[in-house]
Write a structure and sequence with these properties.
single chain; 94 residues; mainly alpha; 3 helices; 81% helix; rod-shaped
Length: 94
């Protein structure tokens, strides 16, 4: 009887190749793509929420004081500054 060579299953080879790539990426300190997407989403919320809070607070103060957009504009600027600072801090932590 002659020994037949084992048939290589392409699916198993693809899975092994992917596992090797993932192990190499982890060893090099790379993150998975979904982790990068999650980080981008959280950074976006860190910028958007303070801006919206500044707008809401500014609109309320404008109505109280009788100004047209003074407090709203200030709220946008301060909210954007706070949001970008928080996003910068978070990005540096990651």
């Amino acid at each position: 009887m002659s020994a037949r060579p084992k048939k290589i299953d392409p699916l198993q080879e693809a899975v092994k190749k992917r596992e090797r790539r993932e192990e190499q990426a982890r060893a090099e300190g790379q993150r998975a793509p979904w982790q990068n997407v999650a980080l981008i989403g959280s950074l976006a919320w860190l910028v958007v929420v303070p801006i919206l809070g500044g707008v809401l607070l500014g609109r309320w103060l404008d109505r109280l004081t009788g100004h047209l957009v003074l407090w709203s504009a200030l709220g946008i600027v301060l909210g954007a500054g706070l949001g970008f600072w928080m996003a910068w801090q978070r990005a540096n932590r990651e």
